[in-house]
Amino acid sequence: MEHVKCECGHVNPHGTAFCESCGKPLADLGEKPLLDMRYEGSARRSQTYKKTMIDQIWAFFSSVKVGVALIVITLIASVIGTIFPQQMYIPPNADPAEYYKQQYGWAGKLYYELGFNNLYGSWWYILLIALIGVSLVICSLDRVIPLYRALKRQGVKRHPRFLERQRLFGVSHVSDLDKTMAVLKERLAKRRYHVREEDGHLLAEKGRFSRWGPYVNHIGLIIFLIGAMLRSVPGMYIDRVMWIPEGETKEIPGTNGRYFLKSEKFIFETYEKGKDNEVFNAAIDRVGNGMIAKNYQTNVVLYKRVGPVIPGAKPKLEKVKEYPIRVNEPLKFDHYALYQVDFRLNEPKAMSFQLADKQSGKTFGTVTVDLYDPKESYNLGHGYRVELLSYFPDFEFDEDGNPSTKSRVPNNPAFVFKMYAPDRPKGEVSFVAIQQTIEPFGDNKYKMAFAGLQTRNVSGLTVRRDFTLWILGVGGAIFMIGLIQGMYWNHRRIWVQRINGELWIAAHTNKNWFGLKNELRRLLDGTSVMMPADQLENEKKAGQGGQAHGTA
Question: Pfam families given for it (predicted)?
Answer without folding.
Answer: ResB
